[in-house]
Design brief:
Layout (H helix, E strand, L loop, with lengths): L3 H12 L6 E6 L6 H11 L4 E3 L1 H13 L12 E4 L2 H4 L4 H12 L4 E6 L2 H9 L5 E5 L3 H14 L6 H7 L5 H27 L2
Parallel strand pairs: 1-4, 1-5, 2-3, 3-4
Length: 198
């Protein structure tokens, strides 16, 4: 699968007990090993729960029916959700209820998405205590780079993308993109100053 080191790090992350919500978002295209990875984690954490989109939908609807904005007691300190993209095709109201339930959860939550674009809305809901893992898929990582660059209104060429692909994690990538953004702003400022002098 080529993700052994990531499996080790994810299991280590899961092993730290916590009394607050911690979110991990795993991004990788179909066939990149997301489901295999979740089953591998589940084998080590018997108290963990793995849900598919239809199961999560049923759990949320059942809790709402009983006027409870929390996961049921059977979902303990580790919840994993596969194919979260399917949930994010649901209506706005359902997503907001799900978000409220997630915010009340005190444990580790791992959600899998097929692309950064489909995960972005979910990622933006959490300002802290989140970790993003991109499985060995260059196409996905290129999408992440382009998406982050667009936010900074930054055009990146193929050479810059290749250099940015070497970043170890999303925080390094954000730092490098921000440096590139500042560099472009300085260059633009110098060019504007030069034009004024003509």
């Amino acid at each position: 699968m080529g993700n052994n080191f990531r499996i080790y790090r994810i299991k280590k992350w899961c092993s730290h007990r916590c009394n607050r919500l911690k979110v991990m978002i795993i991004i990788g295209p179909s066939g990149s090993g997301k489901t295999t990875l979740l089953h591998s984690i589940l084998a080590d954490y018997k108290s963990g729960t793995l849900l598919h989109p239809d199961e999560l939908f049923s759990v949320v609807c059942e809790q709402v029916k009983h006027a409870k904005l929390a996961f049921p007691p059977r979902i303990k300190e580790l919840l994993m959700v596969d194919d979260m993209d399917e949930i994010y095709k649901s209506g706005f109201e359902f997503k907001m209820v799900l978000y409220r339930i997630i915010k009340n959860y005190k444990g580790h939550l791992i959600c899998c998405f097929n692309s950064y674009e489909s995960a972005e809305e979910f990622i933006n809901m959490f300002k802290k205590n989140k970790k993003i893992v991109v499985l060995n898929a260059v196409k996905i990582r290129r999408g992440v780079i382009r998406s982050r660059a667009r936010r900074l209104e930054l055009d990146v060429d193929d050479n810059e993308i290749e250099r940015l692909l070497k970043c170890d994690d999303i925080y390094d990538l954000n730092s490098e993109l921000y440096k590139l953004h500042l560099k472009r702003q300085l260059e633009k400022g110098r060019k504007d100053d030069g034009d004024e002098g003509i």
